[in-house]
Design brief:
This protein has two helices and ten strands, in the order ααββββββββββ. It is mainly β. A hairpin with a 5-residue loop joins strand 6 and strand 7.
Length: about 160
């Protein structure tokens, strides 16, 4: 009786498996599928034009604020709302580092001021961590966005659309 050579079939199966890893064998999306996943901006947060194809998220970086005085960083839109995407803490050297995000109307959100959130240290001996805090929060319609920090020792910005 002659022994079968099992090495060759195993080699072929192994080579096909390796080829499958390196070759893109997935079906491509059709144009109809791609179009369904995209949307056109017609209204909503600061509508920048009807019929604009929105395929991602575009935000505007505000000026830096390092002041205990409430400062408007994004003006109230004529229509729609502001989308607060993130708060960026650029500098926080004091253990009392604090950033308050608020909204309202009038000069520097002086009328109907509402605190949206406050970022601060976890303990009285820790610093406010420097970095980006992702939020994705919608500010009520026709309201401006403002920032306040504890003093010049803390600096913050927002990314909003």
């Amino acid at each position: 009786m002659k022994a079968k050579n099992t090495f060759l079939p195993l080699l072929v199966v192994g080579l096909l498996a390796i080829a499958g890893i390196f070759l893109n064998t997935q079906a491509q999306e059709s144009p109809a599928q791609i179009t369904m996943a995209q949307r056109f901006v017609k209204s909503g947060p600061q509508a920048l034009g009807a019929g604009v194809l929105q395929v991602g998220s575009i935000g505007t970086l505000s000026p830096a604020v390092a002041s205990a005085t409430r400062t408007e960083v994004v003006a109230a839109p004529a229509s729609g709302s502001i989308w607060l995407q993130s708060v960026i803490i650029e500098k926080a050297t004091a253990t009392t580092g604090l950033v308050t995000v608020s909204y309202g109307t009038g000069t520097n959100c002086g009328t109907g001021t509402t605190v949206l959130l406050t970022l601060g240290p976890q303990t009285s001996t820790s610093l406010l961590p420097i970095g980006t805090y992702s939020l994705q929060v919608q500010v009520p319609a026709a309201k401006a966005l403002c920032l306040t920090t504890d003093a010049a020792t803390t600096s913050a910005r927002v990314v909003a659309q």
